[in-house]
Amino acid sequence: MHELDGRTPVPVDPITTGDEEFRSKFISWQMADLTVTDIKEYLKHKDLVLVPIASTEQHGPHLPLWTDTITAMEVSRRVCHKIGVLRTPPIWMGYSPQHMHEPNQGRGTITVRSSTLLAIMYDVARSLIHHGFNRIIFINGHGSNIKVVDPILRKLRYETGALISFVKPYMENYVGLMKGLLENPPEETPGWHASELETSQDLAWDPNIVRMDRAEFTKCHIPEFLPKSFEKKDGMPDVEFDGYKYFTFPMDHHEFIESGVIGNPTRATAEKGEEAFRRFSDHVARGILELMNVKVEVKNREFVDRVL
Fold this sequence. Notes:
The chain is 29% helix and 10% strand. The protein has 308 residues and is of the alpha/beta class. Helix 3 (67-83) crosses helix 7.
């Protein structure tokens, strides 16, 4: 199956669902590759679509700015191939104010305000619902988006009755599906920003965009504006005091890690990245197959407020 993404993707074995004849009708599961005729044909059989969403932000000296978007795109691609569902082009910008750094520092991060991100998510989902999709599954690759998305997910559900979900296929400080795969011990934060997991996934996706010659192990520290009695070990907005995490501060990334890399990327390999993508996509695909059996009744389909 051809897909217009400018690279040769890793082949993905489909999950057998008895829809071989249906699959044969489509040259791609990326809906932007398809025609109006194809979309109409798809909607005769299925009403679910994935929306990859992430960010474009600094990932230190060795990883590309769109690392989080790569995760969202690749997991979505694999899920679509496994179970024969459509996906949209990615929402490549996210809520990343903490990654901007000071002016004139050349970090490259493109952030959008929370109100902007929620408006984009709303308009994308309402457009899809307008056309006949009843199940909208956002596949998120950027942790900070989680801080702001709940209001729009609820608005979409309450307003339309559509099935709305927000899936988080990454690790950070929750090992989850990656248990036993990564070598870094907890103190080397294997799932954090530009560390072992993200570096491995980028190597699996395209080794030509990873600069392993620049990869270095760096640890977080407490921002200068906080007393030394506080302690910081990862990229979460909360910090430790007396061994507990009850204090939260609006910190910028460069205040606790100058390089942008939280952890040790030097143990990353393409093989680990491939296995991580496989585990994530298998899990998400099985969950989505279950969600396709949920009864959904859309009560407000037309996207009336679509101009201002």
